[in-house]
Amino acid sequence: MEKIVALAKRRGFIYQGSEIYEGITGFWDYGPLGVEFKNNLKREWWKYMVYDRENIVGIDAAIIMNPKVWEASGHLKAFTDPLVECKKCNKRFRKDKFDEYWEDFYKKVGRGGVKALSKQYEDIYYCIDRKNPHKEEDLTQEKKFNLMTEVFLGVTEPKQKTYLRGEITQGVFVNFKNIVDSSRVKIPFGIAQIGKAFRNEITPGNFTYRSREFEQMELEFFIKPNEKEGEKWFSFWKEERMKWYKLLGIKSENLRFRNHEQDERAHYARFATDIEYKSPFGWSEFEGIHHRGDFDLTNHNLKYKDPEIEEEYTPWVIETSGGVDRAMLFFLVDAYHEEEKRIVLKLHPKLAPVKVAVFPLVRNKKDIVSKAKSVYKMLKAHFVTAFDDRGNIGKRYLAQDEIGTPFCVTIDYETLGKQTVTIRDRDTMKQERVNIDKLEDYIKEKLT
Ligand code: ATP
């Protein structure tokens, strides 16, 4: 993880939020490469979930809603995490995560054993002097801590209190009727959304994994309210979502499903499964698939008139809810490879922030440099393209490998005569000679 965090900062993927003012816990800024990567990820999700299907439409709801939404949805009462405090060092923890980390800790060092572990665990394991492990008996009674972030609106006192959304989901439910009335969707159908959510997390950490501001990508899929349909669509979306991560290159051995026990399910879920990733800090949630039943539409007093059977009913909902930031983090982790002579991010070409880099073989030959510039301009019209004429070719390859650029094009002496360039593949490091006229199609084909 430390290597990923360092690479992310060094190359402009992710920076600590407000860094020049000592940062602010749980907030991150995405740099020039990070924003490209994130946009690619969201675009791929949207294509797979919306454009490639016939029964799914999109929405982009507001972040701030009337507080009555959160009252009806149950979030003001039940969107809580269990909070405990250590009476000795006053650190606060999420009790369920505390228990989980301890299990892991004992596995690593044995009961009673104390050993220096990776920095990211220190807070949770150690009390006061970083030598003694926390003790269960020093923890306060568990309290329910609400994760919603309050905001105050208006110019006169008392200001109107509302919330930054804790999940993007409710924006879909409150627009259910609008969408049914204004588009031609018929059950079964889905509404997809990508957007920011905010949670006042007790223990933000593990880089962007648990942030206070993050993005979610969600599908709410509305079905007829019966058990058979529920089972069918729950299992359909479980498999579809797992397939998406694999299609974009996450190694199968690093993915698994984990069903939620009844006592850990969110207040809205009839049943729930997580897609988990084998991360450097243990198996961790990528995305949740939830059977929300009719919980939300009933709370908002919304129904659906089925034109086929001319009956009114409250549909059930199967939800797939993933985090953009978590996905990005795990795609980075999974793609990170250290080889003998290089660090390489083996990102799926569709996710790679830069698709192709163009180099003049030498920088002191005018003809070569100007040819390289013209190839760069040509490619830039179609792909995110970099130009690099610093140092030697070997160093330029290494710099592109480290950010996952799938192709590097070099303009050399032969280019001037034969109009061909070399194109080097990031993973195999093999080079081919390709005619400049064919370059665009060559790269397009490889990218798809
Ligand atoms: P956790 O148990 O890790 O707190 P959760 O089960 O509460 O997560 P959901 O409410 O199901 O999470 O949210 C759906 C998705 O949103 C998660 O799978 C995750 O990818 C993302 N997500 C949730 N909380 C955060 C967070 N604090 N930081 C980054 N992503 C998050």
From TrEMBL:
Keywords annotated in UniProt: Aminoacyl-tRNA synthetase, ATP-binding, Cytoplasm, Ligase, Nucleotide-binding, Protein biosynthesis
A GO MF label: ATP binding
Source species: Candidatus Roizmanbacteria bacterium CG23_combo_of_CG06-09_8_20_14_all_35_49
Family according to the record: Belongs to the class-II aminoacyl-tRNA synthetase family.
EC number per UniProt: 6.1.1.14
Gene3D superfamilies documented for this protein: Anticodon-binding domain, Bira Bifunctional Protein, Domain 2
The protein's name: glycine--tRNA ligase
Gene Ontology CC: cytoplasm; extracellular exosome; microvesicle
InterPro entries given in the database record: aa-tRNA-synt_IIb, aa-tRNA-synth_II, aa-tRNA-synth_II/BPL/LPL, Anticodon-bd, Anticodon-bd_dom_sf, Gly-tRNA_synthase/POLG2, GlyRS-like_core, tRNA-synt_gly
